[in-house]
Amino acid sequence: MDTGYLRSLKHRLLGEPTGRLVLVCNFEAEHRWARQHVGLPNADFSAGTNLVRRMEELGVLLAGVNDLLICKYPLDPAYRAYLDRIGLPVPEIAVPENVSADRSTTEDVLDSPALLARLATLGAAGARLLPMATTDLEEKLAVSCGLPLAVPDAAVFERVNGKIYGRRLTAAAGLRAVPGDECETCDELASVLDRYRAALAAGRRIVVKDAYGVSGKGLLVLDTPGKADRLLRMVRRRAERTADDRLHVVVEEWLPKRYDLNYQVTVARDGSVRLDFVKRALTDGGVHQGHIMPAGLTDAQYAEIDHAAQLVGVRLRDDGYVGVVGVDAIVDPDGVVYPVLEINARLNMSTYQGSLTELCQGPGQVALARQYPLSLTAAVSFAEIDRSLAALVGSSGPDRIVITCFGTVNADADRPPPFNGRLYALLVATDTDRLTALDDAVRASLGRLSATRPLFSREVSP
Q: Are the CB atoms for 408 and 57 separated by under 8 Å?
């Protein structure tokens, strides 16, 4: 049976809680949306790496036993057996019959007639396609096999996911915004940078972000007037070379913060808006690292987030959006909440954790969902990782470690060693001190598997 979290999500997306979903976890959909927009010079918007593509296995945590999850590669048999053993509902996995390493999973499906025929049968029986986000590729997939989307089309997703759109929505809703500007031409950027020249000379920082940057890509921190001048020269030269003065970026002041937040809003098909949860987010250089649950907000801070969630959801609904929305926020050193730092109208990392925390995090417990980077000289078996982590908590007791994605560990094992891997896990403990100690133990245990022992960022304690 589906978890309460998944039944609720299906009810809001499909209109009933037992519908069947076909999931495609197309991480970094922003790369497709960014093609029609002009961002920072030399920003790396290349296709996702194999490691990023293997993150699609996180869909196992969200999909129900009667749903279908499409993955580029099969689940590791030992990992699948582990999920069965710990009682997580595992969906059916469908793998395209024609796979190419340099394509997205959706592109593989479009080149796989047998799988397309199967999806057409599911669509005729009432199933719906739920991508992480809709791009032109997922829209083409839905049309080609008659599998209707559970969410809007690519045009809606592209429109509501730009950072320029997000800042303007925040202003129109009357919410406290991070001070900054939206730029759509080189001249607008020049004007904004000139206004910040004195602040930069005094040692303050600003950040310039691509409208469709993601995971730290397309982000540039400026802390001197010279850096601002160099950026503007690069932008001007490109505009002259291409005869195109367009530029789609936002410029924001770099605010000190106590911590980051991430909250999820769902805009239902019937028009209702609900705040699903708030989590404390862990970031490093703009790159998501994980979440701590609960967030530890005061009642007043939670009320402010709830108010913002309703306003954001209603405006997205009015612009044609239906589905999950992840919103990044920050709390400054004085406890002031900036409730909208960025709007990601798509499934988010925290979306995939909902069913798992429902099953594994008991009342009063604290949890940490995070990634652990690895540097390996050879592929590591799931059994080896499982044994090393299981030894940290034993077979009984309140603390728990759940491996949430294994495919990313050996995704680049065909490269010359050492190669980088990544393990995703959920840690649950009775209090923050025990959670911190458990995180330290996991990092040490995984470090012993590594060719070199990487320094993991540590942000568990409030």
A: yes
Give the neighbor-by-neighbor strand order of the sheet with 68-70. Answer: 92-94, 68-70, 21-24, 128-131
pTM of the model: 0.93
Average pLDDT, the chain: 93
Q: Which of 59, 32, 64 is nearest to 46 (CA)?
A: 32
- For tokens 């908590």, the residue is 393
CA distances from 350 to 74, 93, 428 (A): 23, 21, 15
CA–CA dist 18, 1 (Å, integer): 9
- Residue pLDDT, tens place only, 200-215: 999 999 999 999 988 7
Alpha helices in 330-393 (DSSP H): 354-360, 382-393
Tens digits of per-residue pLDDT, 391-415?
999 766 789 999 999 999 999 999 9
Provide the phi-psi class of 126: left if phi over 0, else alpha when psi is between -120 and 50, else beta.
Answer: left
> For residue 159, how many C-alpha atoms fall within 13 Å in the half-sphere facing its CB?
12
Which one-letter amino acid corresponds to residue 404? T
CB 280 within 8 A of CB 259: yes
**C-alpha angle 385/390/394, rounded to 5°?**
165
Tokens describing residue 455: 């320094």
Which residues is 373 bridged to in the sheet? 422
* Rg of the chain, C-alpha, whole Å: 22
Contact criterion met (CB below 8 Å) for 145 and 123: yes
CATH-assigned architecture of domain 179-253: 2-Layer Sandwich (3.30)
Residue type, 243: A
For helices 432-447 and 382-393, the axis angle rounded to 10 degrees is: 150
pLDDT of residue 300: 98
Element containing residue 339 per DSSP (H, E): strand 337-344
Across the beta sheet with 180-185, the strand order is: 180-185, 246-253, 206-210, 219-222
Residue-wise pLDDT for 364-374, tens only, equals: 999 999 999 99
Domain-wise residue ranges, the chain: 4-159, 179-253, 256-350, 361-447
Give the type of residue at 102.
D
The CATH classification number of 256-350 equals 3.30.470.20
Query: Cα(68)–Cα(91) distance, rounded to whole angstroms?
Result: 6
Token pair of 312 as six digits: 């954001």
**Contact between 33 and 158 (Cβ < 8 Å):** yes
Closest CA to 23 of 51, 64, 53: 64
Distance CA 13, CA 434 (A): 38
Cα distances (Å, whole numbers) of residue 152 to 131, 155, 312: 10, 8, 17
Architecture of the domain delimited by 361-447: 2-Layer Sandwich (3.30)
